[in-house]
Amino acid sequence: MISWEDIYKVVVSMAPLYVALMLGYGSVRWWNIFTPEQGGAINRFVCFFTLPLFTFQFTARVDPFNWNYLFIAADAISKLVIVTVLALWSKFSSKGSYSWSITNFSLCTLTSSLVVGVPLGDAMYGQMGVNLIVQSSVLQAIIWLTLLLFVLEFRRTGLDIYSNTSSSGDSRVKPVELENINDLEGNMDMVESTSTSISSKPSFWSFIKVVGQKLAANPNSYAVFIGIVWALISNRWHFQMPSIMEGSILIMSNAGTGTAMFSMGIFMALQEKVFACGTKLTIFGMVLRFIAGPAAMAIGCFAVGLHGDVLRVSIIQAALPQSITSFIFAKEYGLHADVLSTAVIFGMLVSLPVLIAYYAILGFVN
């Protein structure tokens, strides 16, 4: 049973996040220290420096040889359920869209496991709970955040190419069907403009190559893979990271979560409202985060036959508050950052009573 002391430990782990958040908020709203452009630069610093090193640092410390592979399978099934539902929604619903599918995936699946999950898991289920939550964090970084990064970059590259194509093709002539281009012989300007518009549309593989090149320049793409490779090597042959290397990583990675919350505070200050996305989207985000995500995880758990405390931890870790990294990526790639910031801020406020309720209910599940 969770005691008041356990609740206090969780609150203690969450309180510094709000200190960093309020400092970022005050730096713009009260003290006028940063401009919007400088706020964007701070977010890029977090995205390309502190977060990759933070990801590498915690990934490199895990022991992949002692993972619970049934739990991993359940987690994969739950994510595939969500991806399938979102794909069908995007294709067949009049309200469905590729952009909102990306955001809804983040809201359903990406959690703040290390900041909130570890102290809460320890209070509820001891070391076993901590181990499973850390495993979920590593899986999230290896697979799902990497997938999120890919689709965000895919979307932005597509928008950039479309913008360039439109600007080159629409400046002198209306769009012309490809099969009618022979009819344009004799006109100077129209043939050249149309040819430019057609030739500027890349093939699918050229498009993927551009996306790959951009991802290769983003350290978030490979930080987690370097970390897991080091974890495999160090645990297999009992290597220890040289202290000079560890110190160099820690000096930046320790700032990862704090600078991310600081950047979110700046973003909040630049909005008209604290909960920038409005009441309806806030409620919608909370439903996805605290109901849809755990429900999908329950499906995955029952599919692979998990039971007992492993089942309970699996569902509770799926109900943890929104991942801070998901906001940083949303801000960097310009996709519904207002929704993700609200999900992080409001989600952390309401997560403790929600998670305790889940803990009480799951106590009756075998």
TrEMBL record:
GO molecular function annotation: auxin efflux transmembrane transporter activity
Please give the biological process terms from Gene Ontology that the record holds. auxin polar transport; auxin-activated signaling pathway
What membrane topology does the UniProt entry give? Multi-pass membrane protein
What InterPro entries does this protein's entry cite? Auxin_eff_plant, Auxin_Efflux_Carrier, Mem_transp_PIN-like
Localisation? Membrane
| Origin superkingdom | Eukaryota
What keywords does the record list, in alphabetical order?
Answer: Auxin signaling pathway, Membrane, Transmembrane, Transmembrane helix, Transport
Which residues span the membrane? 6-28, 40-60, 66-89, 101-120, 132-152, 222-239, 251-270, 282-305, 342-361
A cellular component term (GO) from this record?
Answer: plasma membrane
- UniProt similarity note: Belongs to the auxin efflux carrier (TC 2.A.69.1) family.
Task: Report the protein's function.
Answer: May act as a component of the auxin efflux carrier.
Would you tell me the protein name for this molecule?
Answer: Auxin efflux carrier component
**Native source organism of the sequence:** Rhamnella rubrinervis
